Amino acid sequence: MGVTDLLKLLLLSSGFVGLAAAADSPIPVNFGVIAFPGFEALDIFGPLDALNLLAYKYPMNLSIIAATMDPVGTTPRINPKNSNFSEFIVPTHTFENAPPLDFLLVPGGPGTRATNLNSTIDFVRDTYPSLQYFMTVCTGAGIAARAGVLDGKNATTNKRAFKETSAWGPKTNWITHARWVVDGNIWTTSGVSAGTDGLFGFMSQIYGEDVALNTANGMEYVRWTNASYDPFADLYDL
């Protein structure tokens, strides 16, 4: 029996199931989230709220990365109703000075349809090879697809926008019925709220189910634990 196997056995026998699971996978320290005008709020803040609690148990650093250091809003620059209703997130870094990352999250939202996302796409393409883990939420999969990260991979995305988003990735095997999909170190989720469920799926696999359950209970959040159960695919005739 090797040292790693002995460590896992000791952790399991001591009840530290989460730590035993962590022995199988590298634990990320440096987390990054991309922000662009018109991002979907819950795509970012749902997963981040779970990670906020996780950061009380593990050493973690967070970087909010955007094209510039200007605050980034949830509403696209052009609103069809001229509504003044938006939340803003303040970047900590730009694409030019972002620190090394272990985990990168790309949200979706109406801003993924913008024509000026080249710097965002380039950053994803250039950063992915050095990541331990990569996650997209909702139509954020379209950015990853345009970056070539999803070529030859299984992936999913928002079901209402499935046909539009999947067209950006002709070399991707798009899964219609999935709350989230895991392919290697890439996690893609369905629309909006699915990002939180996908993050908890990630947390369960990397840190242990006990850690994920404890964190969800702390949020009083009822998890969607079956990655393949997706009624929204049927709703949109996929």
Please list the strands of the largest sheet in the order they lie side by side.
5-2-1-6-7-11-10
Under the CATH scheme, the architecture is: 3-Layer(aba) Sandwich
Tell me the radius of gyration. 18 Å
The amount of beta strand, in percent, is 15-25%
Give a count of the beta strands, DSSP E runs of length 2 or more: 11
Q: Specify the overall morphology.
A: globular
The parts where pLDDT drops under 50 for at least 5 residues are: 1-21
Q: DSSP helix count?
A: 9
SS-based class: alpha/beta
CATH fold label: Rossmann fold
Gap between N and C termini, in Å?
48 Å
Keywords: Glutamine amidotransferase, Signal
InterPro entries: Class_I_gatase-like, DJ-1/PfpI, INH-QAR
Pfam families: DJ-1_PfpI
Domain DJ-1/PfpI: 33-195
Q: Would you give an account of this structure?
A:
- The chain has 238 residues and is an alpha/beta fold.
- The chain has a single domain (30-235), classed as Rossmann fold.
- The chain is 35% helix and 16% strand.
- The protein contains nine helices and eleven strands.
- The chain has a seven-stranded mixed sheet, with helices on both faces. It has a two-stranded antiparallel sheet with strand order 3-4. Strands 8-9 form a two-stranded parallel sheet.
- Strand 1 (30-34), helix 3 and strand 2 (61-66) form a beta-alpha-beta unit.
- Mean pLDDT is 91; it is low at 1-21.
